[in-house]
Amino acid sequence: MSYAREVTEEEWPLLEQGRSSPRTEALLDELRRGIQEAEPSTDAQGTLTRKHCQS
Asked: Which end of the chain is more exposed for a tag (fewer CB within 10 A), N or C?
């Protein structure tokens, strides 16, 4: 399942109950790792990667 779908279908309903989804957190960690480990092949990709890693 994609991170966006997991957030809207699982995380948001749980947040209404004051809970969170460990699976959503794991997917976010996986997404972050993928971005941080990516090797940009253009200047634009490099800029986007650097901006993401700063936030």
From this structure: C
Write the pLDDT tens digit of every residue in 12-35: 999 999 999 999 999 999 988 987
**In this structure, what token pair is assigned to residue 7?**
């957030």
- Helix residue ranges, H only, 1-42: 3-6, 12-16, 22-37
| Six-digit token string for 51 | 């901006």
Contact in structure between 24 and 10 (CB atoms under 8 Å): yes
pTM more than 0.90: no
Burial letters 14-24, b for 16+ CB under 10 A, else e: eeeeeeebeeb
